[in-house]
Design brief:
Strand content: under 5%
Largest sheet: none
Distance between the termini: 49 Å
Structural class: mainly alpha
Order of helices and strands: HHHHHH
Shape: rod-shaped
Number of strands: 0
Length: 184
Amino acid sequence: MGGLFSRQKKPVSRVTEQDKAVLKLKQTRDKLKQYQKKIMLNQDKERVLAKQCLNQGRKDKALRLLKKKKFQDSLLAKTDAQLDNLDKLVQDLEFAQVEIQVVEGLKGGNEALDALHQIMSLDDVEKIMGDTEDAIAYQNEIDDLLAGGVGVEQLMRTSYWLNSENFLVLRLKKSCLMFQCRIW
């Protein structure tokens, strides 16, 4: 009973107006080709008929059939020109659809880039680079200490510095940055 009063959702068609236009142009092209075939078949029949009329001595009818053939030749030339125009138009429409997709892709890329720029400002990047330089300098000091015989006095200064507030603040900043990167 619920189905009686419920609304059926109309499925969204993926066929665009451009697709419909291209289809209509291709159908018109096919009709023109059929028309050309019909004219060519008539010309062949009338050519045979014109030969028969000439053999029978009926020049006036043969002349009329040849004039009709000449007219049909002009029609064939016109339909050829129309077919060329239709093919060009179909290609232009299809290329325009590709261009639209490219523009939409560029638009989406720009929006994503703007969102990234809002998340990370230039000041944040400069701060991270400064913190990284400090951490590299600190690591170099440790490497120097370990590479060249470490004295008791140097170990005491390093131990004091490691236990000081500066080291803890630097580690806290580094942890916060890592946490933000994981969230992002």
